[in-house]
């Protein structure tokens, strides 16, 4: 009896500390327990509801088990034969109907949330962004024509309708703070619809194994106030910045870029039209590169151009060996593309 009380106490305090740990989850960037969108909140709410029903079943089972072991068992020296009853209709109905009711209570909110997470048509006034998953980076195409990569910006308070397409194989779009995962399947268009409610910078990750650099297929979502978002969009819609005449290095870089092999794969609006790799029109305005693997600073950009596969195994960008001055000029030009 003593020992069992003690282990029950240990169990309760372990559970309590797990729950307390969840409270701290706001500091964990990949947690699903601190939702920042209506979709995330709906899923989180479902999780809590199902957990509550599970907890109820857990308590009932533990109470029945404890009673069976400590109250209704025969003691040493006691020779009462067990009851030989072969059936009990009330009991049988109870343990059939009881679990059926619990399953019903779990399935109603589950089905409701599934439908809620998959609206057939875009809600009124939604911002539709085309998301194209590539091995191993993300392309974001905005309805007014500008494109970016690996860093999506969205406003708070407006329904966001993502149209998920794949350029190659199956990927999965996942931003834990903004809601559930959704597979990105070649030859099929999937949607993800939500309203973000808190400005911030939320990490995402491809969640379906997609080859060598799957783990390096990250991205960020910048949720902004509508004003900040409008400002960002205005900057993105403008053409690429032209290097200032006194920035000699960037001017040389621009000249070199325009005739380089880079143009076969990369678009800089008005300069080149490649589409194998990310659009670089406003590359300098991004905080990271290569799908969140590197910080966007000159040293990392130079390291990337020099040997992409070393940084990101399998990356579909060839290493282009450039003499130092040319490389520095190219990096200065890319960073000037604000
Ligand atoms: C054969 C096509 C190809 C060529 C040529 C090429 N790239 Fe790339 N580039 C890519 C691909 C694909 C990626 C995405 C790699 C990834 O993240 O997995 C990429 C990524 C990049 C990025 C990171 C962009 C971002 O926002 O994440 C930069 C910067 C870049 N390339 C610059 C260059 C420069 C400069 C050159 C010429 C010296 C060049 N590339 C030549 C295909 C190419
Ligand atoms: Cu992927």
Keywords:
Immunoglobulin-like; single chain; elongated; binds copper (II) ion; 338 residues; alpha+beta; five-stranded mixed beta sheet; binds heme C
Report on the structure:
By secondary structure, the protein is an alpha+beta fold. It has helices at 2-23, 38-70, 89-116, 226-237, 248-259, 298-306, 308-311, 324-336; strands at residues 127-134, 137-141, 147-149, 151-155, 159-166, 171-173, 182-184, 190-195, 200-205, 218-224, 267-268, 272-273, 288-289, 294-295. The protein has two domains: 28-70 and 91-236, Immunoglobulin-like, CATH 2.60.40; 248-336, Immunoglobulin-like, CATH 2.60.40. It contains eight helices and 14 strands. The N and C termini lie far apart (71 Å). Bound molecules: heme C (HEC) and copper (II) ion. Residues 133, 171, 206, 208, 210, 214, 217 line the site of copper (II) ion. Heme C is lined by residues 136-137, 149-150, 260-262, 264-266, 276-278, 283, 286, 289-291, 301, 305, 312, 315-318, 320, 330, 334.
Ends apart, CA distance between termini: 71 Å
Mean pLDDT value: 91
Low-confidence stretches: none
Largest sheet: 5 strands, mixed
Strand order of the largest sheet: 3-2-1-5-8
Query: Bound small molecules, which ones?
Result: heme C, copper (II) ion
CATH topology descriptor of the largest domain: Immunoglobulin-like
Principal-axis shape equals elongated
* Count of domain modules: 2
CATH architecture of the largest domain: Sandwich
Helix amount? 25-40%
Outline:
The chain is of the alpha+beta class and 338 residues long. The chain is built from eight helices and 14 strands.
């Amino acid at each position: 009896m003593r020992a069992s009380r003690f282990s029950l106490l240990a169990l309760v305090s372990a559970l309590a500390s797990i729950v307390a740990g969840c409270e701290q989850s706001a500091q964990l960037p990949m947690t699903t327990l601190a939702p920042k969108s209506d979709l995330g909140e709906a899923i989180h709410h479902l999780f809590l509801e199902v957990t509550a029903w599970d907890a109820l079943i857990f308590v009932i089972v533990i109470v029945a088990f404890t009673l069976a072991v400590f109250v209704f068992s025969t003691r040493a020296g006691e020779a009462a034969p067990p009851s030989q009853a072969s059936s009990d209709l009330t009991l049988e109905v109870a343990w059939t109907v009881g679990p059926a009711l619990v399953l019903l209570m779990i399935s109603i909110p589950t089905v409701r949330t599934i439908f809620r997470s998959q609206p057939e048509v875009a809600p009124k006034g939604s911002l539709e962004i085309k998301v194209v998953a590539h091995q191993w980076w993300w392309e974001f195409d905005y309805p007014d024509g500008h494109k970016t990569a690996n860093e999506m910006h969205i406003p708070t308070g407006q329904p966001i309708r993502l149209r998920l397409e794949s350029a190659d194989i199956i990927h999965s779009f996942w931003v834990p703070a903004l809601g559930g995962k959704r597979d990105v399947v070649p030859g099929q268009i999937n949607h993800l619809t939500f309203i973000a409610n808190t400005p911030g910078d939320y990490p995402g990750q491809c969640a379906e194994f997609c080859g060598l650099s799957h783990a390096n297929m990250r991205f960020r979502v910048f949720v902004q106030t509508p004003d900040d978002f409008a400002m960002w969009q205005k900057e993105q819609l403008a053409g690429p910045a032209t290097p200032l005449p006194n920035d000699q290095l960037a001017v040389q870089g621009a000249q070199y870029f325009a005739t380089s092999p880079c143009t076969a794969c990369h678009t800089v609006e008005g300069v080149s039209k490649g589409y194998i790799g990310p659009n670089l029109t406003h590359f300098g305005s991004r905080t990271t590169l290569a799908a969140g693997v590197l910080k966007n600073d000159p040293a990392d950009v130079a390291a990337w151009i020099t040997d992409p596969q070393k940084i990101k195994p399998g990356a579909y960008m060839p290493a282009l060996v450039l003499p130092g001055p040319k490389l520095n000029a190219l990096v200065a030009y890319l960073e000037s593309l604000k």
